[in-house]
Write a structure and sequence with these properties.
This protein is α+β, with helices and mostly antiparallel strands. The protein is built from 15 helices and 16 strands. The chain has 2 domains: about 240 residues, BirA Bifunctional Protein, domain 2 (2-Layer Sandwich), CATH 3.30.930.10; about 90 residues, Rossmann fold (3-Layer(aba) Sandwich). It has an 8-stranded mixed β-sheet. A 5-stranded mixed β-sheet has the order 13-12-14-15-16, with helices on both faces. It binds adenosine monophosphate. Its EC number is 6.1.1.21.
Length: about 425
C-alpha cells in the first residue's frame, strides 16, 4: 500500500511557505501595532470546552465534525475545531480577566474539522484568530472588523467588502426563531432536508442555505434585523457609524447568521470573488455570554477568524506574489577533496549573518559556477590548491562577472559591504 496524506489534509511544501509567511507576518504587524497580544492555546482540549461553547445545534456537533477521541486516562479530548473556546478557557484559567480592558488576543495554528473536503474546505486547515474581550461598546466591534479588513488589504487583497449583520440579543433571536418555526413549519414540504433539520434545531440557520428551492422560500421571509430590540439596533448602528467614519467599506447583509450558536448582536463575514463556492475568507461576531458559559464571570467579547488557505487562494487568484526571498550571498565550490571540509567550515562561520551554501564534493570550474547560479547566489567562492597555498578564496560576482581574490578573514566584511549596496553602485 502506498502511504498517502489523510483525505482533507495536505503538505505545505517549501514553495508555498513564503506566501503563507507574508500573510502571517502582515497579520502579526497589523495586530501587534493595535496592542493585540499573541496567545497560543493547546491543539487539543477537554471535549466539554467545545461542547459547552459551540452549542448543541452547531454543525460541529450536529454533523459530528469534531475529531474527538478517548485517551488512555479515559478522558474525552477533542482536536480544536475553532480557536475561540480554547482562547476563552485560557483567558479564564490564567486570570487574564483582571487585565485592563479591552484584552485583545490573537492566535494562529491548525484547526480540525471532519467535513467533506472540496476546494477551500479541508479537514486540517489554519486560522488566524482574534478575540477582543471585556467591553460591550460598538467601538470594539468596529475596531475588530477594521483590523481584519486592514490585515487582508495589507496582504494585497483588493475590493474587499465586509458583510455586516446582527442576530440581536438572545430574546430577539428567540422571537425570530419562533417566527421562522411558525412560517416555515407550514411550508416544510418546500424545504431541503438540511433546512428541515435546521428548522428543528436552529431555524435561523435555514437562511444559510444555498439550495435554490430554499432560497425561494427564504426570499418571502422577514429578516433577523426586523426583530432587533432598540438597544441591539442602536449597537448595530453604532458599529456602522464607526466603520463609515474610518472608511471601511461594508454592506448591511440582512441574512447573515453564523454557524456557531454563541453569537449575539454583531455578525460579519468577508468574502472574496473567484475562489469557488467556499468564498468566505473570514467570519466573526460578538459573543457576550460565552465567557460565562465556560465558567468565567459575565464578560462581553467580539472576535473573528480567517482561514489562511482561503486567503492564500484569493491572493493567488488576484496574482499577488510573495515578496522575493533573500538570495544566498555566497556559494562555495571546493575544487579538490581537501577543500570540501574547508568550505564547510567557512560556511559555518559565515552563516551567523549570511546565507552561505556549498557543494558537498569537489567540482570543476564550469560545474561549480553553474551550481552557484542555480542556487541563486550572488557570489561564487572557489577553493583549490592554488587558493590554499595563498590563504585566499577566488570570488566571482555572478551578477556582474567581476572576479577577485580575498584572504579568508576579509570575506565576511566584503560580502556585507557589497550586499548592502544596491547592484548599480557596486559596478
Ligand atoms: P468559521 O469558524 O466556520 O466561521 O470559519 C472561519 C473561517 O475559517 C472561514 O471563513 C474560512 O475562511 C475558514 N474555514 C472554515 N472551515 C474551513 C475548512 N473546512 N477548510 C478551510 N478553511 C475553513
Amino acid at each position: 500500500m502506498k502511504l498517502r496524506a489523510v483525505k482533507g489534509t495536505f503538505d505545505i511544501l517549501p514553495e508555498d511557505q513564503r506566501l503563507r509567511r507574508h500573510v502571517l507576518s502582515t497579520a502579526e504587524r497589523v495586530l501587534e501595532h493595535a496592542g493585540v497580544l499573541e496567545l497560543t492555546p493547546p491543539i487539543f482540549e477537554h471535549t466539554e470546552v467545545f461542547t459547552k461553547s459551540v452549542g448543541a445545534s452547531s454543525d460541529l456537533v450536529v454533523q459530528h465534525e469534531m475529531y474527538t477521541f478517548t485517551d488512555r486516562g479515559e478522558r474525552s479530548l477533542t482536536l480544536r475545531p475553532e480557536f475561540t473556546a480554547g482562547v476563552l478557557r485560557a483567558y479564564i484559567e490564567n486570570g487574564l480577566i483582571v487585565w485592563p480592558t479591552p484584552v485583545k488576543l490573537w492566535s494562529y495554528g491548525p484547526i480540525f474539522r471532519a467535513e467533506n473536503p472540496q476546494r477551500g474546505r479541508f479537514r486540517q486547515f489554519h486560522q488566524v484568530n482574534c478575540e477582543f474581550l471585556g467591553l460591550d461598546t460598538p467601538l470594539l466591534d468596529a475596531e475588530a472588523i477594521a483590523l481584519l479588513y486592514t490585515v487582508l488589504s495589507a496582504c494585497g487583497l483588493e475590493g474587499l467588502t465586509v458583510r455586516l449583520g446582527s442576530v440581536g440579543d438572545p430574546e430577539d433571536a428567540a422571537a425570530y426563531n419562533a417566527y421562522l418555526r411558525r412560517e416555515l413549519g407550514a411550508r416544510q414540504s418546500e424545504l431541503s432536508e438540511t433546512s428541515r433539520e435546521r428548522l428543528r434545531l436552529n431555524p435561523m440557520r435555514v437562511l444559510d442555505s444555498k439550495d435554490a428551492g430554499d432560497q425561494a422560500v427564504i426570499a418571502t421571509l422577514k429578516r433577523p434585523l426586523d426583530f432587533l430590540n432598540p438597544d441591539a439596533r442602536a449597537h448595530f448602528e453604532g458599529v456602522q457609524a464607526f466603520l463609515t467614519t474610518w472608511g471601511i467599506p461594508f454592506e448591511v447583509d440582512d441574512s447573515i447568521v453564523r454557524g456557531l450558536d454563541y453569537y449575539r448582536r454583531t455578525a460579519f463575514e468577508i468574502h472574496a470573488a473567484g475562489i469557488g463556492a467556499q468564498s468566505a475568507l473570514c467570519g466573526g461576531g460578538r459573543y457576550d455570554g460565552l465567557v460565562a458559559a465556560l465558567g468565567g464571570p459575565e464578560t462581553p467579547g467580539v472576535g473573528w477568524a480567517f482561514g489562511l488557505e482561503r486567503v492564500l487562494d484569493a491572493l493567488r487568484e488576484a496574482g499577488v506574489r510573495a515578496p522575493e526571498a533573500a538570495r544566498p550571498a555566497l556559494f562555495l565550490v571546493p575544487m579538490d577533496d581537501e577543500a570540501v571540509a574547508e568550505v564547510a567550515a567557512l560556511a559555518f562561520r559565515l552563516r551567523q549573518n549570511l546565507t552561505v551554501l556549498h557543494a558537498y564534493a569537489k567540482r570543476n570550474l564550469g560545474k561549480g559556477f553553474k551550481e552557484a547560479e542555480r542556487a541563486g547566489a550572488r557570489f561564487a567562492g572557489l577553493r583549490g590548491a592554488r587558493e590554499r597555498e595563498r590563504g585566499v578564496y577566488a570570488l566571482k560576482d555572478l551578477a556582474t562577472g567581476e572576479q577577485l581574490e580575498l584572504p579568508e578573514g576579509e570575506l565576511a566584511g566584503f560580502l556585507h559591504e557589497r550586499l548592502e549596496r544596491p547592484l548599480a553602485s557596486s559596478l
